[in-house]
């Protein structure tokens, strides 16, 4: 579906953007891939690796609506990956996080509508479900803006959906590189916040493949959630350094013991498909059907049981220590 098309990726120089670009170039023949982000050095470095004729690099901020509109001219598909995503930084600089994650979302929506983009997928996070920190709260606002955007599309045919998933193994600033550094430095112990802590676990490639697939599945308004395994953080420590001591240091501000992707309170809006869930909008769309039991690929979903919650500690799929080792190897760490 991306052959001959123009795709714009906000935050295209980030972990997700680079993997998405690499995958698009491997599997399709896009007319253009536009990378939209702020930092010229990251773009310069990406250009050294991705120097194909179809690549375009736009310096721009998602806070700048005019620049986004200029960048989106003749664009078919948009992936909105740009975000401020470090939980502590968001707590200390709340307005900066709000401007990028919420105002930026609104700008992406307006530019996509004005430029008649066909489909837009915005990336979300498990931290947006029942949020307890500002980062999660801004991503929930962003999710709501993208869902509601399907109602303001008016005469435009642009459709908007959201993809939500959990911890990407090895992404910048996450637990795996943190533990790796301590292991290399031969630290005395690995700090564990809580012995019961669990997290969802996904590779970057799985995240990219899930987004690609959902461009085919979407009608607009869905929050797509993949079925992925969970891990216990204590098992991750054992998988990475079986002989190293661990020390419990307590949950940090803004952190949850377990993450949620589909809140129980939204079970009556949640549909189970073979390999994913769909949270349907809590608003009705006037211009289209509001049936989310079947998607554009004709896959069928069923309503989940009342109160069903998709949570990292209540997941039927938990990785053992051996499976974590294998999984992390697959993640090309
Ligand atoms: N990594 C995870 O574990 C994870 C899990 C679930 C969901 N997500 C979501 O996935 C998305 C991508 O994450 P990632 O891991 O690829 O993040 P990342 O590696 O930190 O990349 C973020 C990208 O956004 C750009 N950016 C930041 N602020 C911007 C702004 N104001 N205007 C334009 N571009 C801006 C950055 O480039 P510049 O700094 O040069 O602008 C960079 O290209 C995010 O929306 C995140 O919330 C991530």
Walkthrough of the structure:
There is one protein chain. By secondary structure, the protein is of the alpha/beta class. The protein has a domain at 6-165 and 202-226 and 266-300: Rossmann fold. It contains 10 helices and 16 strands. It has helices at 15-27, 40-49, 65-71, 87-92, 94-114, 134-149, 175-184, 204-217, 233-240, 321-330, and strands at residues 6-10, 32-37, 55-59, 77-80, 119-125, 159-165, 189-192, 198-200, 223-226, 230-232, 245-248, 260-262, 270-272, 276-279, 302-303, 310-311. The chain has a 10-stranded mixed β-sheet with strand order 3-2-1-4-5-6-9-14-13-15, with helices on both faces. Strand 13 and strand 14 form a beta hairpin. Helix 1 (15-27) crosses helix 8 (204-217), helix 5 (94-114) packs parallel to helix 6 (134-149) and helix 9 (233-240) packs across helix 10. The radius of gyration is 20 Å and the shape is globular. NADP nicotinamide-adenine-dinucleotide phosphate binds at residues 10-11, 13-17, 37-39, 42, 61-63, 81-85, 100, 104, 123, 125, 139, 165, 167-168, 171-172, 174.
Short description:
The protein is an alpha/beta fold and 333 residues long.
Write out key terms for the chains shown.
10 helices; globular; alpha/beta; Rossmann fold; binds NADP nicotinamide-adenine-dinucleotide phosphate; 333 residues; single chain; 35% helix
Task: Describe the SSE topology.
Elements lengths: L5 E5 L4 H13 L4 E6 L2 H10 L5 E5 L5 H7 L5 E4 L6 H6 L1 H21 L4 E7 L8 H16 L9 E7 L9 H10 L4 E4 L5 E3 L3 H14 L5 E4 L3 E3 H8 L4 E4 L11 E3 L7 E3 L3 E4 L22 E2 L6 E2 L9 H10 L3
Parallel strand pairs: 1-2, 1-4, 2-3, 4-5, 5-6, 6-9, 7-11
Antiparallel strand pairs: 8-10, 9-14, 12-16, 13-14, 13-15
Helix pairs in contact: 1-8, 3-5, 5-6, 9-10
Bound molecules: NADP nicotinamide-adenine-dinucleotide phosphate.
The site of NADP nicotinamide-adenine-dinucleotide phosphate has 30 residues, from helix 1, helix 5 and strand 5.
